[in-house]
Write a structure and sequence with these properties.
6 helices, 0% strand, mainly alpha, c-terminal domain of poly(a) binding protein, 78% helix
């Protein structure tokens, strides 16, 4: 029995990968084996960096909250401890945004926590 080769599906699969690697440098965009490796590596980086992005933003928010809290005589740790003790339901993202864009509102939160 002759070997069956579905060249239509194979070509479609390759075209999909080559389309995704458009814009890469030299053979990374048009040589199948190199482009496939580039594509797979890119997917790996994308998966990994979706997790890393969350870590980086949390660190940024903590830094901003710490800087703003220290202007009002509290450390980050003290401030968050008092927030949690009083069951204030603001997360770090919102607190960091207030610290950057609305210092008066952040000061009001700090003063309410200090009392």
């Amino acid at each position: 029995m002759p070997r069956s080769v579905n060249s239509v599906a194979s070509r479609a699969r390759r075209k999909k990968v080559l389309k995704e690697t458009r814009g890469n440098f030299l053979s990374r965009r048009n040589v199948w084996t190199v482009a496939k490796n580039t594509y797979e590596k890119g997917l790996t980086y994308a998966y990994r960096d979706r997790k890393t992005k969350k870590r980086n933003f949390r660190a940024l928010w903590i830094t901003r909250i710490n800087a703003a809290a220290r202007q009002h005589g509290l450390t980050y740790s003290q401030f968050m401890g008092k927030l949690n003790a009083q069951n204030v339901g603001l997360n770090r993202k919102v607190l960091a945004d207030l610290a950057m864009n609305d210092p008066k509102a952040f000061e009001a939160i700090v003063n309410s926590v200090k009392e």
